[in-house]
Amino acid sequence: MTTHTPLTRAKEQIHGDEEAGSELKLGEFQNVSSLTLSETKEVLTAVFNHRREQGKFKVPDNEVVTKTQQYLEVFSRFKQRESVQAVERILALQTDLVAFEKSQLGTLCCDSSDEAKVLIPSIEGKKSDDDLQELLDEITKLRQFV
């Protein structure tokens, strides 16, 4: 009997231990920085602009980059750099929240503390409803509805 050489590489096993529930289990991403979609858009825009200005580095031009930029354009809640930075400053002051929770609050822009606790279950008990609502209202003020 002849054995054939596999035509593809062995698929890496995914260890599905990550969970963003009432207890955050982010695996290798547990204690790393996290960006809002608006911050991500700003970073990519700055990198691509810099590459264009320098002329030395090619700006990636493929479907993944194009679709990523389109997604960020649609779902970034804060369109002006000043607003993105203001939200980042507000969230940085929230020392009782971890980076993932902060980036989720800045991305989702929840209307109420109840909505925030449903969408980001790990913030339950970290802030009072009034404090969380005050934070959400402060973030909402910076949003531009265009």
From TrEMBL:
Cellular component annotations (GO), alphabetically ordered: nucleus; RNA polymerase complex
Recorded coiled-coil stretches: none
UniProt-annotated location(s): Nucleus
Main location class: nucleus
Keywords from the UniProt entry: Nucleus
Molecular function per GO: nucleotide binding
Membrane-traversing stretches: none
InterPro entries for the chain: HRDC-like_sf, RNA_pol_Rpb4/RPC9_core, Rpb4-like, Rpb4/RPC9, Rpb4/RPC9_sf
Pfam families named among the record's database cross-references: RNA_pol_Rpb4
Ranges for domain RNA polymerase Rpb4/RPC9 core: 27-146
GO BP, sorted A to Z: DNA-templated transcription initiation
Superkingdom classification of source: Eukaryota
Family: Belongs to the eukaryotic RPB4 RNA polymerase subunit family.
Name of the molecule in the record: RNA polymerase Rpb4/RPC9 core domain-containing protein
Organism expressing this protein natively: Tuber aestivum
